[in-house]
Amino acid sequence: MKALMLCGHGSRDQGAVREFAGLAEKLKARLPDWNTDYGYLEFAKPIIRDGLDRLRGEGARDIMALPGMLFAAGHAKNDIPSVLNTYAAENGVTIHYGRELGIDLKMLRAAGERIKECLRADGWQDGEPLHDTMLVVVGRGASDPDANSNVSKVMRMLWEGFGFGWGETCYSGVTFPLVGPGLTHAAKLGYKRIVVFPYFLFTGILVRRIYDQTDGVAAAHPDIKFLKAPYLGDHELVVETFVDRLYEILEGTNNMNCQLCKYREQVLGFEAEVGLAQESHHHHVEGIGSSADCKLCDTTCTGACRAEAIGGHAHPAHDHGHHHGDDHGHSHAHGHEDHDHHHGEAGHHHAHDHGHSHGHGQAHGHDHHHHPYPHADHPLGPRSMR
Question: Basic and acidic residues composition bias: which ranges (predicted)?
């Protein structure tokens, strides 16, 4: 049988989880000859193993797997492959892993459509010059410079494609510049209209924070019109790009970009990470901490558990700060927020030891060691937006 597994990150935000499931359903409809399933790495159900179990239970022994992420960093390069490899070894199946959505003309066209929606709502007509308008593309942010640089390339392609007067890139967390400093800088450049475009696949607390911070900077600069473009969502061209990634596996052309991969080459500033063990640190939160487990929010994650936990010196599930690397577009909200970085020769110890509560009475004490992000003390980041 033809079996396809779509692997998402997962989110505490029910809207993000629902949108990913909807995209999986669109992919199923687009591939009627394939038995397609999906699962999440953390903070949502079903987990990846659940989807693989269903495919295996229906007779699949040769499974194609795709990361449901915009760019490849720690999650796509390490965490998901680790889960898939472990499952394959334990269950006697073969899993062929594809690549991320990446820099792709279809993805750029989808992004262009979202930006056009925003401009048209402001009265812009197709073909009108945009020399008086600035574009700011917001990426998720990662501790992998390869993924971060991809966001800059997307911005440049959109900047030139539309003919915007100027273009800038900022990030929601982990790296720099963050949205607030980025937009404050952009406001100094003299443009009277600025389009802010979150290059994210799905909704969530980070997308809402991007829009909120845009409103904050706009309030401080009433002479500038800030336009908030919609995120990518399940645009048909996004679905088509996933289909392309599947056929790349079948054709044997699904090569990832390893020339700038910090795990395989000595990237400037990240030399110590070559050969870092490929292992997932998400096993402790598989299916735990979803919106269904949280009693403080309804269907939309507001970060209320984080505010409550700070008073008790606990760290909630979605702010535990061990995200280390995908600009995958999931708006889960567990960026580097209120933690101190301790850098040692062996790696990167988060001072709070991740003894975080998941909002349902179940705490997990664990201690992750990663190589340090070399710019953790950068004045414009990399702590995530509040």
Answer: 316-348
SS3 content of the chain, % helix, strand, coil (to 5): 35, 15, 45
Quote the CA–CA distance of 9 and 152 in Å, as a whole number: 22
> Where do the H-state alpha helices sit in the chain?
14-30, 48-57, 74, 80-91, 105-121, 145-162, 179-186, 205-220, 236-251, 304-311
- Give the Cβ contact number of residue 282 at 10 Å: 23
User: Which residue ranges make up each domain of the chain?
Assistant: 3-102+235-293, 105-228
Domain 105-228: give its CATH code.
Answer: 3.40.50.1400
The domain 3-102+235-293 is placed in CATH, from the list 3.100.10.10, 3.30.420.270, 3.40.50.1400, 3.40.109.10, at 3.40.50.1400
Q: Cβ–Cβ contacts within 10 Å for residue 223, how many? A: 6
Strand partners, 350: 341
pLDDT given at position 77? 87
Inter-residue contact 262 to 145 (CB < 8 Å): yes
Give the tokens for residue 121.
Answer: 């709502």
- Whole-number average pLDDT of the chain: 81
What does the pLDDT look like over 78-93, one tens digit per residue?
899 999 999 999 999 9
Confidence of residue 252 (pLDDT cuts 50, 70, 90): very high
CA distances from 256 to 259, 334, 368 (A): 9, 26, 27
